[in-house]
Specification:
The structure holds 2 protein chains of 2 kinds. Chain A is built from 17 helices and 17 strands. Chain A is α/β, with parallel strands linked by helices. In chain A, the strands form 4 sheets. Chain A has a 5-stranded mixed beta sheet, covered by helices on one side. Chain A has a 5-stranded parallel beta sheet with strand order 9-8-10-11-12, with helices on both faces. In chain A, strands 14-13-15-16-17 form a 5-stranded parallel beta sheet, sandwiched between helices. Chain A is extended and about 145 Å long. Chain B is of the alpha/beta class. Chain B contains 5 helices and 5 strands; from the N terminus they run βαβαβαβαβα. Chain B has a 5-stranded parallel beta sheet with strand order 2-1-3-4-5, sandwiched between helices. In chain B, strand 3, helix 3 and strand 4 form a beta-alpha-beta unit. The model of chain B has no long low-confidence stretch (mean pLDDT 89). The chains are: A alpha/beta, B alpha/beta. Chains A and B meet through helix 1, helix 15 and helix 16 of A and helix 1 and helix 4 of B.
Chain lengths: 573, 122
């Protein structure tokens, strides 16, 4: 074989080998490409699934909250309906008891007493359910007045006496003579004490129950501390956990032996907290229990804690984060979740727009820093979509981009690295857009209206005027104001009637109303007004600063309330 | 013997309370709605009116206001009876001109005490 032939053959072999190698490489490349495509598809599918699942979960949660609210409303109206026939059962058993006094001897009495006793027992339970569902539905109100603590203790003692005596117990009331007046809701304080005392009576036999009251400096001001101590069966540490939760008694056998729904302590704690105080318990199994209740003096400027719903976990709002970098998203989610926000994340523009539509967020955080990710286009799409354009957008930008962001309709901007505190502050701000709150002035005197308008406008508030009660109601129907200033003496529909109408309409019930009147008020009128209006100013007797401060406090309170009480899912503003 | 007008639309409640009041020595008249209650108060001039607040035709709040707006019936004490044991109701009742207030179900000794106090004032 010539050397040329050998050379050609080698060349041919090499060519073949290269071809084979190229084929293999090509095949491998294709495989890798296919695998990549599949992976990408899988990834997309996965994101879609996660997004879908998130939306479904959000919907399920919203549904659950709606259902819980519906349940509370149902319980409230049902309890009311139940009371009516019960009323007849208790009433007729009492009539029969009274009339059987004339019959001698009356062997019917013990049975009649059982009917009446069971009826009253049932009534108590229904009242508890009614209370709890009212608390849950946010319909339990606090009525503040100053009352004499010692007089209240006397009255509570007298009411609970028969219950205490039933198990052969005795009640001791210890109180300092100098307890004085307390400004709180006396009806709730009374019920708190009755609940604790009747519990003590229920779980103690032939023992001493002590009710103690003393003045205390409490955190957040002065107040009264009440203590109910019994020498009853006590509770183990296990039994103590969950004691204040609704429908839980120390254990199931307790219910069988002692009855009750286990609602009393849940209600007690809610009442205590509504009044700005709390209740704690200290108990030793077999030796007895001590419940300690604190009730602060509530000055008009002490804000009361908003009643916490019993079963519902409140969410401050929903935030959609649209970004490509997952790391940063995670670092945002932490502080937001901690503050009670629900965080949805979108990994891209299409996703972001879809979730903005489906997740109905209260605010969107949009990253436009990454040049490969077209945040600007998303911002433009968000702001040109009629359904989405109202959702405030916080941009994450570099400083140079800021003006462009604002030009495209962003509400706020942040620069990286993001400061969580700053983010929360901005979120709170965009959720409560700074539209000037409007104040409705209802007064038939033109010069008073003009004077009030000048005062209010100076503070940056918008003012609407109504020249009589009827016009005032018309204005209310047009839009709910942040605060209403109301005169009393007006032709035809007077201020009392307006106020009555406002307090009866669900949509208007929460409007803070300030009475500005020159009417000489009777004690009864003043008392009624105090229960229905936020404050009463007598014309000529108040300072401008006082009135403005009062209105400002109400405007601020209304804002806080509306940001806190928004139905989860769709935010305040 | 004091003359009491009981204005109550619920038959069972009306029957129960009127029977019990009669047993306690009162002369009891009944009306079934707010409008006839106001009318009867004017013609019969009872010593005291017990008024359910959720009444047909004319509700108790309105009826009480009319009684208190009329010089002839103004001095007759009115006790409002409501099923809602809420402070707001008490204040609403007092604002409507009622002299006192009690909640249903009726606790007879408590109601009797309130009645006696108002009757003694007359």
């Amino acid at each position: 074989m010539s050397s040329i032939e050998q050379l050609e053959r080698r060349l041919e072999r090499e060519r073949q080998a290269r071809k084979a190698a190229e084929a293999i490489a090509e095949e491998k490349t294709r495989e890798i490409y296919d695998a990549n495509v599949r992976l990408q598809q899988l990834n997309n599918r996965l994101e879609e699934l996660v997004g879908q699942r998130t939306t479904e979960l959000a919907a399920a949660r919203d549904e659950a909250i709606r259902a819980s609210k519906a349940k509370s409303d149902f319980l409230a109206s049902m309890s009311h309906e139940l009371r009516t026939p019960l009323n007849a059962i208790i009433g007729y058993s009492e009539i029969l008891l009274e009339e059987s006094e004339d019959l001698v001897p009356s062997e019917l009495r013990p049975d009649l007493e059982k009917i009446r006793g069971a009826g009253r027992n049932l009534l108590g339970l229904i009242n508890d359910i009614l209370d709890l569902s009212k608390i849950e539905a946010g319909k339990m109100d606090v009525f503040l007045e100053s009352f004499d603590v010692v007089a209240l203790l006397d009255e509570v003692g007298a009411t609970v006496e028969p219950l205490i005596a039933k198990n052969g117990n005795a009640l001791t009331v210890n109180c300092e003579a100098q307890l004085g007046m307390l400004r709180s809701d006396p009806i709730k304080v009374r019920q708190i004490l009755l609940n604790l005392l009747s519990n003590a009576a229920k779980f103690t036999t032939k023992g001493r129950i002590t009710l103690t009251a003393r003045r205390r400096g409490l955190s957040g001001g002065d107040g009264v501390e009440f203590e109910v101590t019994d020498k009853g069966i006590g509770m183990t540490p296990d039994q103590l956990t969950g004691l204040f939760r609704p429908f839980s008694q120390a254990d199931a056998s307790t219910t069988r032996k002692y009855g009750g729904t286990g609602l009393g302590l849940a209600i007690t704690r809610h009442f205590c907290r509504m009044l700005g105080g709390d209740v704690t318990v200290d108990s030793t199994f077999g030796e007895g229990s001590t419940f300690k209740v604190t009730v602060p003096d509530i000055d008009s400027d002490t804000a009361l804690a908003a009643p916490q719903p019993v079963w519902e976990h409140r969410v401050v709002g929903t935030v959609l984060v649209v970004e490509d970098g997952r790391e940063a998203t995670k670092s945002l989610a932490g502080p937001l979740t901690q503050e009670g926000y629900r965080v949805i994340t979108a990994g891209g523009g299409a996703d972001g727009l879809r979730l903005a539509r489906e997740g109905t967020p209260d605010a969107i955080i949009l990253d436009v820093v990454n040049p490969e990710f077209d945040g600007w286009e998303i911002l433009r799409l968000l702001k040109t979509d009629t359904d989405l354009c109202d959702i405030p957008v916080i941009l994450v930008t570099v400083l140079d981009d800021r003006d462009m962001g604002f030009a495209l309709g962003a509400a706020e901007h942040l620069t990286k690295p993001i400061n969580p505190k700053e983010l929360l502050r901005l979120l709170a701000r965009v959720q409560r857009p700074e539209v000037a709150p409007d104040v409705l002035v209802v007064d038939d005197d033109q010069s008073t209206r003009a004077m009030l308008r000048r005062m209010l406008v100076k503070e940056g508030w918008r003012v609407r005027e109504a020249a009589n009660g009827a016009e005032g109601l018309e204005q209310l129907a047009r839009a709910v104001p942040a605060v209403m200033l109301l005169d009393l003496m007006m032709p035809e529909v007077d201020g009392f009637e307006v106020l009555r109408a406002v307090r009866q309409a669900a949509a208007w019930r929460d409007i803070p109303v300030v009475i500005v009147t020159s009417k000489d008020l009777t004690r009864d009128e003043l008392e009624w007004l105090r229960g229905h209006a936020m404050d009463v100013f007598q014309k000529g007797a108040y300072s401008r600063a006082e009135l403005i401060a009062t209105v400002r406090a109400m405007v601020d309170a209304a804002r806080v309330a509306s940001s806190r009480m928004v139905p989860p899912g769709r935010g305040g503003g | 013997m004091a003359k009491i007008l009981l204005i109550e639309d619920n038959e069972l409640n009306r029957d129960m309370l009127s029977r019990r009041l009669v047993r306690h020595g009162y002369d009891v008249l009944v009306a079934y709605d707010g409008a006839s209650g106001v009318e009867m108060t004017g013609t019969e001039l009872p010593d005291l009116v017990l008024m359910d607040m959720s009444l047909p035709v004319l509700d108790g709040w309105e009826a009480a206001q009319r009684l208190k707006a009329n010089p002839e019936t103004r001095s007759i004490p009115v006790i409002a009876l409501t099923a809602h044991a809420m402070t707001a109701d008490r204040e609403r009742a007092l604002a409507a001109g009622c002299d006192d207030y009690d909640t249903k179900p009726i606790e007879l000794p408590r109601l009797l005490e309130k009645m006696q106090r108002l009757l003694a004032r007359r």
